[in-house]
What we know:
Layout: H1 2-27, E1 32-35, E2 60-74, E3 79-80, E4 83-84, E5 95-108, E6 112-120, H2 122-127, E7 135-145, E8 148-156, H3 176-179, E9 184-193, E10 198-205, E11 219-227, E12 232-242, E13 253-265, E14 268-279, E15 291-305, E16 308-318, E17 334-343, E18 349-360, E19 365-367, E20 370-372, E21 374-385
Parallel strand pairs: 1-2
Antiparallel strand pairs: 2-5, 2-21, 3-4, 5-6, 6-7, 7-8, 8-9, 9-10, 10-11, 11-12, 12-13, 13-14, 14-15, 15-16, 16-17, 17-18, 18-21, 19-20
Amino acid sequence: MKSLNILVIFLLLGFQLKSQLDTLSKKNSSSTIIFHSESNVQLTGTDILDERIDTLSKPELRIGGYVSTYYAHYDDETESNGFVQFSTLASRNNQFSLNMGLVSLAYASRRMRSTISIHYGDVPESSWPANFKLIQEAHAGFRVGNKLWMDAGFFKTHIGLESFQPRENITSSMSIPNFYDPYFLSGVKLTYLITSKWSLQAGIFNGYNEYVDNNKNKALDFSTKYAFSKNISFTYNFLTCDETPDNIATKHQRFYQNIYGTFDYAKLIVGIDFNYGIQEHSLKKDTSKTGHMFGGLVVVKYKPFTKFGAYGRVEYFSDPNQILATNLDAGKYIKGTTLGVELTPQKNSALSFEWRVLESDNLIFKKGNTLLNQRNEFIVCLDLWF
């Protein structure tokens, strides 16, 4: 309840700030205040660089809000703290609930930039560290040189095709491969725009999906994005870290790679994502050797009409050595198929109806006293952002 009160206060302050800044901006044409309402946000949630900032003619403050609500039904009765298995999006069973309510402020000028986003709902409740559930991202940066920026703070992840914000995805659920990607990172990073099509990023972070460091080690990151055109892009992410507690002698260095591409043209959107990771001393059969995992997905959306679209996704995840799925032995694989339709009454809103079936190698789901290797999901999700 305390977090909800803070979110409401932050929202009210945002509206009050916007009102005051609107008045000031009429008197001072040297700055711009924008009530943020972009419509084309699908498959952009993990972009590594905001290229818009290099075209700014004057400082800009963007104020945004976002609400994502849902109703979900799962025929799997496995729950933990009121959340279903693989709980990030639509994580409560047989009830209406809130993925997130989000308020964000973003300042940008030719030399400085900063973003803070406050959220509340099932996404932070199920997937965020207890001490930082209110903060989705909070970071600040400055221009080091021509097209080179340094930023530090708490960041949304740039790894993986899918985001934990449903509006940034084609589907209302999150695939298993992206479920095990990091959602947030804490540290410092450099981003450099080589050309208008090619960008690089290098960073040092506290750890894999960590705000507060859990040991003396740091995670090193390298990312690059290349846009072949305004419709086709390719992104490569590499992260290496060791999350072994300091009191354990045997270390487990992890090398994690993520590649994804997007195609967005006319009525068709396609996203392809592939993950591959290895970790030292992690092979179950022989812990002196290196274990491996991999996963991937393909998601497609076809929009024959302006306000109607249909979509589908196939996904596959294999982590037999439990490198990322540390608390779940799913066997050799988890695979899934998703089908759905989406209505967009306005450009900044979406209503989706979705079905997904997940199948695992082991019996990881249950219904009553029966263990199963399959789960069906039905999700209705309504999003509105401004």
